[in-house]
User: Fold this.
Amino acid sequence: MRIDEQPRTRWPDLSGFRHRRPDLRLGSRLQRIERPGAVPGDRITVQHTVATATAEYTLLLNAPGWLGRRAVGEALRDAVAELRAIDLTYGPTRPESLVSRLRRDEISPESYPPLADLVDRCAAMRAATDGWFDAWAVPGGFDPGGLLGGWAVERAAARLRANGVHDYALVTGADLVVRGHAPHGGPWRVAVHHPTDQDRPPLVLEMTEGAVGTSGVSGRQGHVIDPHTGEPADQLVAATVVGPDLAVADAYATALYAAGPAGLSWFRDGSEYRALFAHRR
Assistant:
């Protein structure tokens, strides 16, 4: 069996599925993970939160019972170790991280394959966003922070799949990636709340694979730099993008926050990514 295939698992007939409560909520003040309801007896469910120096991550695992609790625990430990390792190894605020050493020209990207992948992704997103996502146009030099969190989550998710866990959700801040099914047996239901109007009904996504990336939902101003002027971006309150890969969705959200409504043109012509929110100040 290929590493990324869904395991052979018995699921209820989704044609009669009636679960309607969101599993996850994203948005200012309302961001939370709902308590799961009844879980089938042949499933192992785990929720674990880990904090690094730069972010907090919550992992929700919904594994088949035949995998065993020991194997599920090993999968969880492996994913958490990946998140911690990325924070230590690539965090731009750490003086001895690979990113900091790259900024000081002490190493080249080719010195470490994961670093080369990170740099290549930043270059690809700079091209895809007409330069509005530019990891090199940041005070102090190269800073992949606009997609580093999403890249870390995707690498941790790959560790889960490598250990046989194919149904999960990983959440950090207002970003998440999901795959497979939630503990209740249906697709993950993600309620994305409006960043400023909390009385507006949320947009609810039913997902079995995909990611949601957000920039600006915390209300913090000045955290995204306009790469063309060097000044803090101030056109939008928040930008939210959905698509297959969280690193890409994160970078698109960062770029859209900087570019404003002009960035909506990136999501036409059959793009796999879609802008959910792009609200002016």
Notes: The helical segments are 69-90, 98-103, 113-128, 145-162, 246-259. The CA atoms of residues 29 and 198 lie 9 Å apart. Residues 1-18 have pLDDT under 50 and may be disordered.
